[in-house]
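To: structure subgroup
Subject: Chain for Friday's discussion

All,

I'm putting the inputs and outputs inline so they're searchable in the archive.
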Amino acid sequence: MTSAPGALDRGLGILRLVAQHRRLPVSGIADALGLSRATAYRLVERLREEGWLISEGHGGPVRLGPVAAQLAAAALESVNLRDVAIPVLRELVEATGETANLAVPNGAEMVFVAREHPLRTVSVGAHPGGTRPFATTSLGRAYLMALPEPRRSAFTTPELEKKLDVMRARGWSEDRREYDPSSCCCGAPIRDHTGEPVGALSVAGVAERMDPVLDEVGPQVRDAAARISASLGYLPPVPAARVIPD
């Protein structure tokens, strides 16, 4: 049996919500988290007293305060994308038996910065520093999926935009023998604390092996990229919460 959320759970919920929306009125916090107005005002006041939140004018919306900013800055300074990603790449290799990659954008290409190989004698190979184009690879498409307009339009066509819409809806990209007829791969974007895409993760393998299982591996890559994004401070949209009793 799950116990009812306490003040700490509610306080953390408020901080996550404000971090995601940047600023919110207390009434909006109450509605989003299913709290009574009295409870929301009480918790927000406590968080303000401790420096986690600050108000914009008397009775105005609240945003993250100096204590939250200091904690976030300290966390970000200690995070290196490659260091965070390597253990996740190794987990993907173990789970899928295929090659896992990390790449970052440079111009209109993705540059490999890390790669973990399986023990298979035949696998897809590339070296750190190698590049892949945006339009025809899962790494590039994953990055484009998360890139906001109008910046994305500089790299896409109407046909590619339709493909990206499908990939964005499910959270992972694919390349079925489009860049290399001998391989298939799937990818997902990595976002930083601002929500900006800063790289992409992919799993690639020989087409005959990967094509039949791409729909199974894709969600694994999506979830792995989400874990890396979370380590970089990214907070995904907060789902509608159930009503929490006072």
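Points worth raising on Friday:
The first helix runs from residue 7 to 21.
The longest strand covers residues 197-206.

D.
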